[in-house]
Amino acid sequence: MNINEVAPTIGDVAERVAPWPSPDNARRIVVRWMYAAAIVHLLVGVAVPWLAGAPFVDTYHRGIELHFWAATAPEPARAQQIWWMSMIAATVQCASVWMLALVHLGNRLRRREVWGWLLAGLLVWAPQDVLFSLQARVWGHVAIDATALVAMVPPLVWLLTRDTV
Question: From CA 158, how far away is CA 136, in angstroms rounded?
Fold first, then answer.
């Protein structure tokens, strides 16, 4: 019988009482965060077509319409806006499935390229989305974009540097 089997080493005790997650636990938490981000995108993509025409979204629609119409927008313009929101929501659903697949691959393969691909997608999407939102003075979209970037870029950069294969 080995002495380490009977008496725990200092390292064993430290691992059990450490206040911070071990590197593998930290990685697990960050990966779960990225799974959650992808699932939130999926849920939002599913919800938007059902809620786009709801009365509580009128203020949002009016804010968008003020950029294009000086007075009240004609009813067909509102219908078109709801249609576009639904179309974009379907695209968000599709992108969220890709996000889930990439997070799964990154988690399983521990390949930094996968996290890089997710970051590249954000790099393609974010500047355009923010620019179009700024041009239309839709500050809510800018805030949503900023929140998404703050929620996803730091964990992805951490995973990119953590998974060195």
Answer: 33
Does the residue 32 lie in any domain? yes
Q: What is the pLDDT of residues 75-122, one digit of tens each?
A: 999 999 999 999 999 999 999 999 999 999 999 999 999 999 999 999
Segment 8-41, tens digit of pLDDT:
565 565 555 555 556 689 999 999 999 999 999 9
Nearest-angstrom CA–CA distance, 124 and 120: 6
Domain count, the chain: 1
pTM to 2 decimal places: 0.81
* Residue 2 domain flag: no
CB atoms within 10 A of CB 30: 19
Closest alpha carbon to 75 in 53, 90, 56, 47: 53
Residue 121 CB partners (closer than 8 Å, separation 6+): 95, 99
Q: For 71, which DSSP code?
A: S
Q: Is 17 contained in some domain?
A: no
**Residue 39, CA distances (Å) to 10, 33, 43, 117 in order:** 40, 10, 6, 18
Q: Does residue 4 form part of some domain?
A: no
